[in-house]
């Protein structure tokens, strides 16, 4: 009878050990799934961060372009104003030259009539 109880004890011990291994493996399945879900969450968070960084970079670039466009618009407006001023100056010079030419012509006409 002693052998029988040792044999049963051995069987119970092996079955109990197998049961503990199965329970441990089963619990590891949950841990693996939890780990994978955490990896998914981390990847989603990384993507959100990346999208935010891209959005911030795009916003920054857009502001740079807007400032550059505003500068070009100011430059174009200033150039148009300078053009107007220069045209007025040129017109005055042309008028002065025209007056001088008229006076020279009058002098030429009067000197021809007196000669």
Describe the structure.
The chain has one domain (1-84). The protein is mainly α. The model has no long low-confidence stretch (mean pLDDT 93). The radius of gyration is 49 Å and the shape is rod-shaped. The relative contact order is 0.03. The chain has one helix spanning 2-114.
Secondary structure blueprint with pairings:
Elements: H1 2-114
- Helices, by number, come to 1
Please estimate the helix content: over 70%
* Shape call: rod-shaped
Oligomer: single chain
Question: What's this, in brief?
Answer:
This protein is an all-alpha fold. Helix content is 98%, strand content 0%. The chain has one helix and no strands.
What attributes does this structure have?
mainly alpha, 115 residues, 98% helix
């Amino acid at each position: 009878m002693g052998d029988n109880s040792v044999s049963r004890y051995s069987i119970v011990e092996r079955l109990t050990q197998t049961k503990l291994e199965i329970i441990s493996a089963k619990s590891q399945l949950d841990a693996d799934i939890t780990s994978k879900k955490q990896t998914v969450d981390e990847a989603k968070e990384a993507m959100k961060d990346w999208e935010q960084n891209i959005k911030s970079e795009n916003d920054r670039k857009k502001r740079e372009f807007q400032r550059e466009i505003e500068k070009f618009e100011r430059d174009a407006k200033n150039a148009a104003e300078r053009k107007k001023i220069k045209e007025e100056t040129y017109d005055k010079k042309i008028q002065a030259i025209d007056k001088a030419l008229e006076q020279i012509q009058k002098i030429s006409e009067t000197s021809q009539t007196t000669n």
